[in-house]
Amino acid sequence: MTSTAHPAAPRHAADPVATAPVTPSAEVAAALDAGAAVVALESTILSHGLPAGRNLEVAARLEDTVRRAGAVPATIAVLDGTPQVGLTTAQLERVCSPDEDLDKLSARDLGPAMASGRSGATTVASTSVLAHAAGIGVFATGGLGGVHLPPPGETTTWDVSADLAVLGRTPILVVCSGMKSILDIPATLEVLETGSIPVLGYGVDEFPAFYLRSSGLPVPHRVDGPGQVAGAMTAHRAFSSSGMVLANPIPAEAEMDRELHDRLLAEGLAKVGETAVSGADVTPVLLEHFHTASGGASLDANEELVVANAELASRVAVELAR
After folding, report:
1. For residue 210, what are the contacts with CB-CB under 8 A and spacing of at least 6?
2. Residue 68 to residue 175: CA distance in whole angstroms
3. Cα–Cα distance measured from residue 190 to residue 167, given in angstroms and rounded to the nearest whole number
4. CA angle in degrees (0–180, nearest 5) for 39-45-49
5. How much is the average pLDDT of 268-278?
6. Which residues are catalytic?
7. Nearest to 282 by CA among 180, 153, 136
8. 104 close to 121: Cβ distance less than 8 angstroms
9. Facing residues of 84 across strands?
10. Interatomic CA distance for residues 238 and 242, integer angstroms
């Protein structure tokens, strides 16, 4: 096997990310040492994105999907101040327990959480940082963070997810179903371009929109197989330290009805305006409205798209490990 098994492996002593004190599980460490395929998975979707009970079922389904595709899953979280890369069954149960009340940790929160011994679930940004530090080059998630839509009555916003800045400096492939459709997708694509982050569409010419298969916007590059993705990532890594986004549309049978989606989005934005929430609190409010007002349809869609992304990420990781 070659060193392309986990493209994040090359490190430099001066790089603080490369020396972060991560703790891979024995299984993940053995796989990385052997140059085998490993796929990182975030934990925020489990602790903050899904209801108790269902979150543990989805966690097991995601890890099983990765294994069946020939890779090793590495679900990531920070527990008692220590970044864990690959969780035991007991640790997964802890992450999924509502009694734990885990913090939601972005990349900026990792240092303070580690120094104070706190526990938290990792977002796309923090998962990317920790996966790269461990030597993992492929990460599967649901939706990428992005530029928020302006609140009702306003024309601009400074609310931009840290996911975008982190991907601009972290060489990892993020497999997602685009960014969440509650965000400003055109603006987010512009920020990705500014960060020199390649965006690939898997088997599609139009960029997906999380719950919907298409946003109507073109993807810069189309790929039609895991080998093409692996080739693009390997070539990109030869001259750039930025990440790459692989946009995989939600399975057709799981796509939300567009009319329902648009109505829920309008209602959710109005709710945000009425409650005057801002910053990191906006996304949870919008997603909660989708989950409750759709009668669970958005939860079903969320589960199916993240499982599909885990399967695709695993196939790409296997190609990189050849």
Report:
1. 142, 143, 177, 178, 179, 180, 181, 250, 305
2. 17
3. 14
4. 165
5. 77
6. 42, 180
7. 180
8. yes
9. 23, 77
10. 11
